[in-house]
Design a protein that fits this description.
By secondary structure, this protein is an alpha/beta fold. It has helices at 23-41, 55-67, 83-92, 113-116, 121-135, 149-170, 192-196, 206-215, 222-233, 243-260, 276-281, 286-294, 305-318, 333-340, 374-380, 443-452, 468-478; strands at 11-16, 45-47, 72-77, 97-102, 146-147, 172-177, 200-204, 266-271, 299-300, 322-329, 351-356, 369-372, 390-396, 400-409, 415-424, 434-439, 459-464, 482-484. A six-stranded antiparallel beta barrel has the order 10-11-16-15-14-17, surrounded by four helices. α6 packs across α17.
């Protein structure tokens, strides 16, 4: 996603060398990694020329990385490596650090490679990890951190989404408007854990938002934005008369973001959207929420602050769009039997419908149309043509791989998260809103022993694609105490009854 609201990672690689090993070994191996990375993934990896043997070398390498504008670093053990300066680099570098080490090259051809050119980096990684722990320094270590040049290049590419996620949260401000609606205690947001994650929070009232919206009345930018919305909607522009108000609201949020980001680079919103929103603003904000998410600025519904956090982290890791949906309803038996059974490898209990009123971006839906919020319409303007409930974008979600994800603070301020990989099925929902039929293996057990047992709210971020590995590593790096996933059959949850 090409968005100014997502971090752009500038990676650097710095090689280290223990003084009783040939420095040339680390230098040669570093060059081989850089070459392999460029051949596989293109430019983008800055090669630090300083080889780190001691603390003064570490300072020189740190200056070199900073001067190059690097905001993430790969510390590469081309040989055993000096554990003190290499871990100090991770400490003083202002960004995420990854450690990787060199496997020994083939040696049978020359017969003496393991005498003169043995690097012992397999051993050195143990010392590095031990020293990181002693010093309390966070670093990312790949699943198998010792490899050939090609393998290390792959590790570095796998580090990119993790670095994006870490940098994103480190520089994020969440802006909220209004308290959550009545009976939405599930969207509680103990803000202490936001600060622990390095995230800033700015809480405002609905009146602040309403005043800012009114100040944008007759904004000269509205007509051009209405035209842009009309082009985006195309044949789905069924309620064109509401577009000027939606354009005014979008400009209000964008201007607020610029005026209130402060020292933070990135912003996201958690906004109240009912019940008084419709009667005062005269529309529902769903379409604008989806448009901003497509620009890398997720706007969560119902003042779900941790929902906004989850959406944003999902966008960072995937470098693509995310949305917020309710884990909403079961799939009717007749739809399952007609469209899913025998065609896809899922039981009915593996499936469910993910839904929200109409907050999806146009690019994630099939044939999206502008519509009205049916549930609110029943209560606010029954038996009449929709007016103040207009503004949803409706359509079935595009089929494909997804990761259902949430990073959350429990009511007693414990950080917890889940990530469950699955897919949106190419099956018509026969329903309304931004909606899809989701399939996640062993969903019923996951629903009972993670979502219910651990008191998660009904909102989850939908990240498009399978991104569980990167999300898990980001969460582990951030120190999240409890990370759950959909366990396969035969792997019991902690409180699952084994006798059922």
């Amino acid at each position: 996603m090409n968005s100014k609201n997502l971090p752009q990672v500038k990676l650097g690689i710095a090689a280290v060398s223990r003084d009783c090993f040939p420095m040339s070994l680390s230098e040669r191996r570093r060059k081989a990694v850089v070459k392999a990375y460029k051949e596989k993934y293109g430019d983008g990896l800055f090669e630090c020329q300083t080889i780190i043997e001691n603390e003064l070398d570490m300072r020189r390498a740190l200056d070199e990385l900073n001067d190059a504008g690097c905001n993430a670093v790969v510390i590469y053990l081309g040989n055993f490596g000096p554990e003190t300066p290499e871990t100090m680099l991770a400490k003083y570098f202002d960004g995420p650090a990854m450690f990787a080490a060199a496997a020994e090259e083939d040696c049978l051809a020359d017969g003496c490679g393991l005498c003169d050119n043995r690097g012992d980096a397999y051993c050195g990684m143990l010392n590095a990890s031990y020293n990181l722990t002693l010093r309390g320094i966070k670093a990312y270590i790949p699943e198998y951190p010792v490899g050939t040049a090609d393998e290390v290049a792959d590790m570095i590419n796998g580090f990119l989404p993790i670095a994006r996620g870490i940098l994103g949260l480190k520089n994020l401000k969440i802006i909220s408007f209004g308290p959550r609606p009545q009976d939405f205690l599930a969207c509680n947001a103990p803000i202490k854990r936001l600060y622990d994650l390095g995230v800033e929070i700015e809480e405002n009232s609905e009146l602040d938002l309403f005043a800012a919206y009114n100040e944008h009345n007759n904004d000269e930018r509205i007509p051009a934005l209405v035209e842009e919305m009309s082009e985006e909607l195309g044949g789905g522009n069924k309620m064109a008369g509401i577009l000027p108000k939606l354009a005014q609201y979008e400009l209000t949020l964008l201007d607020w973001a610029e005026a209130h980001r402060g020292e933070r680079s990135f912003v996201t919103f958690a906004n109240k959207c009912w019940p008084s929103f419709q009667t005062q603003f005269g529309f529902v904000p769903c379409y604008v929420n989806g448009r901003l998410a497509a620009r890398g600025i997720p706007v969560s519904c119902e003042v779900d602050i941790y929902g906004a956090l989850s959406e944003y982290l999902g966008e960072c890791v995937s470098d693509g769009i995310a949305t917020l949906l309710d884990i909403n309803n079961t799939v009717p038996g007749d739809i399952y039997k007609t469209d899913i059974a025998g065609k896809f490898p899922y039981t009915q209990r593996d499936t469910f419908m993910g839904f929200h009123c109409g907050n999806g971006s146009s690019c994630i839906m099939q044939n999206p149309i502008m519509n009205y919020q049916r549930i609110m319409h029943r209560g606010l303007e029954p038996d009449k043509e929709p007016d103040i409930t207009r503004g949803t974008l409706e359509g079935d979600i595009v089929p494909g791989d997804i990761t259902f994800f949430r990073l959350h603070s429990s009511a007693d301020a414990r950080l917890q998260a889940y990530a469950a990989e699955g897919e949106v099925l190419p099956v018509a929902t026969r329903s309304f809103g931004t909606i899809g039929i989701f399939a996640i293996k062993e969903m019923a057990r996951f629903y009972r022993y993670v979502l219910i047992e651990k008191a998660y709210p009904h909102h989850g971020a939908v990240v498009f694609g399978h991104h569980g590995r990167a999300l898990f590593d980001v969460l582990k790096y951030l120190g999240v105490e409890d990370i759950s996933f959909n366990r396969p059959a035969g792997m019991l949850y902690e409180k699952e009854n084994p006798y059922k």
